[in-house]
Amino acid sequence: MRITRTGGRRGRRAAAVATAVLAASALLLTGCSSDGDSDAADSSGNITLTLSDYGQFGYKEAGLFAQYHKLHPNITVKEETTANEQDYYPKLLQQLNSGSGLGDITGIEVGRIKEVVDTQAGKFADLSKSINVNDWLSWKEKQATAQDGTVIGAGTDIGPMSLCYRKDLFQQAGLPADRDAVAKAVSGGWEDYLKLGEQYQKKAPAGTHFMDSASAMYNAVVSSSAKQYYDADGKPIYKDNPAVKQGWDLAAEAASKKLSAGLAQFQVPWQTALRKGNVATVVCPAWMAAQISTYSGDAFKGKWDISHAPGTTASAWGGSFLAVPKSGKHVKEAIELVKWLTAAEQQAAVFKAAGVFPSNTGAYQLASVKDAKLPYFSDAPIGQIYADEAKSIPDAVLGEKDGVIKDTISTQINNMEQRGTAPDKAWKDATDTIDKAIG
After folding, report:
1. Which residues lie across from 77 on neighbouring strands?
2. pLDDT at position 314
3. DSSP secondary structure string, 182-208?
């Protein structure tokens, strides 16, 4: 399961798209890194390439490692996975600083990529001569490009935003339930989303809330803006940025009006609320659908649907990269594997197997992506919805401590919801913590 605690709080479980049914298990993939010599070639020239990542990248689920071995019989790929990105990233930094323990290929989350590009780029192979950066969404590969033009990471996936909602609860509350009608109701932006929430709560079925988490909505609001936490010169602007203020104010409003259940996403109470059917909407990056279907279970199949996100500018919540450390013993072979794993056909296969939406735009024209539907979500045309959203995602400025800032603010929004912390105090607590963390 892919859980990212920085730029995008995400959890994933294998989700078959098109005509297949979403998987029902939510087991975390776990693993540990080693400093052994498993990547060394044996006497017959066979080698093992180690791919270190976190959560669920979907390669094993899509059968890509086995397929690559058939294409290259002398190469075996071993995946070493850490369940939680918050645990994975500090260890990655330690390995980079010590120069030991690194995999041949390493995953990097979008909330970390700016810091890695600015401080560690020289330790990674330049992929610009191996991959065609024009195959990716322009803003995606720009995130992994250093000032000298070197590209340290090939984009794996993105998290284009949509809105997942319980159409049966909408009907019971007297709201439009058709996905086009829902999109129209929130077309003016996140303010319209809260207005819809107020309408919902007036006639809400007992024990339900309009949204699961105000912090999730906050992240969606901010990530739909080109300016977020830093300016182009690397200066923190989160205290004065209108997008951050808008997101914060909307989150505070949702908390004060009890529109949100105040649940920290992916934690047990959140999972329980989905299982009991107590949540009407979830801000829904592409990878979130698998989480909802897993924890809501068979009882709510066909009761969920997916519509376009509020407003006209989409959000990108989450996404990762594959990078090749220069210190690896098989850099050339590792680069070739990265190139293959992130090609359109392989990204489409991962999408079909694990619901991870491609960042390589060539995949959008493949039938397995373009025509994809989710039976669990009333056959929502997710290939079309996500591709449309991806095209309107702004070219955002990233900063070195984006992840720290987002996590800290999200924590204080949870405090507003769960503890009743006043917005002014919560904001001060957030900024004090951030200032100490980023200097």
Report:
1. 49
2. 78
3. HHHHTTT-HHHHHHHHHHHHHTPPTT-
| pLDDT classification of 56: cutoffs 50, 70, 90 | confident
Contact (Cβ atoms closer than 8 angstroms) between residue 335 and residue 127: yes
Q: Where are the beta strands (DSSP E) in 224-311?
A: 279-285, 304-308
* Alpha-carbon distances, residue 255 vs 194, 216, 317, 329 (angstroms): 11, 12, 22, 52
Task: Please give the Cα distance from 377 to 386 (Å, whole number).
Answer: 14
Angle between helices 190-202 and 214-223 (to 10 degrees): 160
241 phi, psi to nearest 5 deg: -75, 125
| Alpha-carbon distance values, 127 to 132, 322, 324, 392 (Å) | 9, 10, 8, 26
> Is 59:350 a contact under the CB 8 Å cutoff?
yes
Element (H, E) at 420: none
- In sequence order, what are the residues at sequence separation of 6 or more whose Cβ sits closer than 8 angstroms to the Cβ of residue 350? 57, 58, 59, 61, 62, 64, 156, 157, 356, 358
Could you give the CA distance from residue 374 to residue 20 in angstroms, rounded to a whole number?
8
- pLDDT at 26 > cutoff 80: no
Predicted model pTM:
0.82
Q: Tokens standing for 123?
A: 């330790």
Neighbours of 258 (CB within 10 A): 14
Q: Worst-scoring range by mean pLDDT, 80-84, 163-167, 331-335?
A: 80-84
Number of residues that this document lists for the chain: 439
Which H or E run contains 391? helix 382-391
Query: How many whole angstroms separate alpha carbon 142 and alpha carbon 321?
Result: 12
Dihedral sign from CA coordinates of 183, 307, 367, 345 = positive
Distance CA 245, CA 238 (A): 8
CB 436 within 8 A of CB 428: no
Give the rounded percent of residues in the chain with a pLDDT score beyond 90.
76
Q: Residue 2: name the closest of 232, 269, 319, 253 by CA.
A: 319
- Strand 316-323 relative to strand 105-109, pairing: antiparallel
- Sort 311 into a burial class: Cβ within 10 Å, 0-12 / 13-18 / 19+: buried
Decide: helix, strand or coil at residue 222.
Answer: helix
Burial 327-360 (b: 16+ CB within 10 A, else e): bbebbebbbbbbbebbbbebbbbbbbbbbbbbbb
Complete DSSP assignment for 147-177: TTS-B--EEEEEEEEEEEEEHHHHHHTT---
